[in-house]
Amino acid sequence: MVVRFGKLRYNNNMKLTAHSSNRLMETFAKWDVPKDFADPFYNYLVYGYSPGGCFTSVLANDFAGAIGSSHPGNTVNSFKSIAGWIGSSAPTEAYGSYEAVTEWTKLDTAERRAILERDHLVFTQEDEMMLVLQGERTVEPVLY
């Protein structure tokens, strides 16, 4: 278990403290999403990076495409977990069709952050600042 004290993670202009990063990762942990599935989805949501062929197909609701481009080590349970996570946690703008996935990757940092804040996947910048200033601890969820 890793304990962090509000360190900033910089990448592609979005600055998240460990509080926000862990808040988002906790949503994956609730659905038992494996780390090798959660990481590409995290990078897709936060930084707008393409999640790769298989996961793009998952987000686009293309079952045949997802299975056809899946790594042989991916399990049915892992796909069930990520499908549950998408249905309960992913912003509606970020999935549903290939067009939706492409549009998400085109959003700028401020647009993505506003949606993630709206959906309570990350803290607002003001809340992050308060958590850091108050010295609130945060624990990185353990994903298998």
Q: How many DSSP H or I helices?
A: 8
- Please give the domain count: 1
Low-confidence stretches: 1-11
Q: What is the helical fraction, as a range of percent? A: 55-70%
What global shape is seen?
globular
- The portion of residues forming beta strands comes to 5-15%
The topology string of helices and strands comes to EEEHHHHHHHHE
**What gyration radius follows from the Cα positions, in whole Å?**
15 Å
How confident is the prediction overall: mean pLDDT? 92
The helix/strand class is mainly alpha
Largest sheet: 2 strands, antiparallel
Please describe the structure with a list of short key phrases separated by commas or semicolons.
disordered N terminus, mainly alpha, 4 strands, globular, single chain, 144 residues, 8 helices
Concise structural overview:
By secondary structure, this protein is mainly alpha-helical. Helix content is 56%, strand content 10%.
